[in-house]
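In the previous lecture we treated proteins in isolation. Real proteins rarely work alone, and many bind small molecules. This record shows how such a complex is specified: first the sequence, then the SMILES for zinc ion.
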Amino acid sequence: MSEWIPRTELGKLAAKGEITLDGIFTQGKKIKEAGIIDTLIPNLQTDIIFIGGSPGKGGGIMRTPTRRTARMHRSGRRYRTQAMVIAGNGDGYIGIGMSESVENRKAIEKATEAAKLNIMPVRRGCGSWECACGEPHTIPYEVEGKAGSVRVKLIPAPKGIGLCINDEAKKVMRIAGIKDIWSKCYGSSKTRNNYALALFDAFRKINKMRTEAKKNHDEVEEENTEVEM
Ligand SMILES: [Zn+2]
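The predicted 3D structure, ligand included, written as tokens:
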């Protein structure tokens, strides 16, 4: 691997050890170089979301890591491979990337780089009223994520319940650092890429919730003041 030469201001700060991952997101900065993630998450965890499928023996679909797409061309069919990769630190940070290439290996490599640039914090907590241990083992609130025709509801679960969700989503939860969760899925879960994207939509919504809850609270207070006047 060749040595990383940072090109952006943020990259230079990361290379000098002058900014942390938390710092990047509290300052609302955008990561434009994968080297920043390689530096700040030295023990990066990655996994492949199985988006492909081929008819298996005795019916059903056999899941495969990549999806082959065909396009008609003057000289015949042109095949390409799509891959979806997740990357994170296993402890509150995760990103997702999708890419396409003529080669399997290349598609996975490009998707991994894209996932690094999409890394975001995942808010965790003990959102389960049955648990109240106060540790960040699940999500803080119930939330619903959407992508295409897929909707996924994530529900905080008490400690020790584990990941009550399908195998592809388990990969996402493990890298995000979520240990206990309940879930419901609506719509066609055949489209695995949309299913994974719906999970990330849910994470993004949780991240927004705190600020919106605070905003609403402030608005209510303002209204109350007006009533008093
Ligand atoms: Zn708990």
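Summary for your notes: The pocket of zinc ion is lined by residues 126, 128, 131, 133, 135, 137, 158-159 (CB under 6 Å). Confidence is low (pLDDT under 50) at residues 224-229.
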